[in-house]
Specification:
- The strands form 3 sheets. This protein has a 3-stranded mixed sheet with strand order 4-3-6, with no helix packed on it.
- The chain has helices at 3-13, 21-29, 37-49, 94-102, 118-122, 124-127, 132-138, and strands spanning 54-56, 64-66, 74-77, 83-85, 104-110, 112-115, 143-148.
- Helices cover 39% and strands 20% of the residues.
- It has 2 domains: 1-69, Arc Repressor Mutant, subunit A (Orthogonal Bundle); 71-150, 2-Layer Sandwich (Dna Ligase, domain 1), CATH 3.30.1490.190.
- The N and C termini lie far apart (41 Å).
- The chain has 150 residues and is an alpha+beta fold.
- Residues 140-150 have low confidence and may be disordered.
- Helix 1 packs across helix 2 (21-29), helix 1 (3-13) crosses helix 3 and helix 2 (21-29) packs across helix 3 (37-49).
- The structure holds zinc ion (2 copies).
- One zinc ion (ZN) binds at residues 77, 79-80, 82, 116-117, 119-120.
Length: 150
């Protein structure tokens, strides 16, 4: 692993904010002033392929990255786009019941919780850039990935 890639990985693992490539670029530049945004992008893709980091795909939005590769769910604020981890002690066990109900051999699932973060819901009326109705329209659908056994 190159030094650049190592530093990108260290920076990403040091935060829980799930930064975008651009945000990570700003963080990494403190330590590698000559790095380009393209290099950060490329290394993030490689790190994600290597399984060292997680890529969080948000429909129609910037990709965000996560240094925590343990399976976990995310909460996303529809107003400020903050992303937090769902606490580890909260469990969801869909795969088994869905397997029984559909016959699919479920290999995984993607699930994102959306709503308003504590700050945005507290300052609801002042800070919301959109009405709640519009926020609900912005929600992404839950998607499942599954493989059918023949
Ligand atoms: Zn928020
Ligand atoms: Zn996360």
């Amino acid at each position: 692993m190159t030094r650049q890639r190592q530093i990108i990985l260290q920076e990403l693992r040091s935060v829980k904010t799930h930064p975008s490539a651009d945000e990570l670029y700003e963080m990494v530049r403190m330590r590698l002033p000559h790095i380009s945004l393209g290099t950060v992008y490329r290394n993030l893709e490689i790190l994600s392929e290597l399984g060292e980091i997680q890529k969080i795909e948000i429909t129609g939005k910037l990709k965000r990255f996560d240094g925590n590769i343990h399976p976990h769910y995310h909460l996303r604020c529809l107003n400020c786009n903050r992303i937090d981890d769902v606490p580890e002690h909260i469990h969801f066990d869909f795969d088994l019941s869905l397997n029984e109900a559909t016959g699919y051999a479920i290999t995984g699932h993607r699930l994102e919780f959306v709503g308003l973060c504590p700050e945005c819901s507290e300052h609801h009326s002042h800070r919301l850039s959109l009405k709640l109705d519009d926020l609900v329209k912005k929600q992404n659908q839950t998607s499942y990935e599954a493989v059918k056994i023949s």
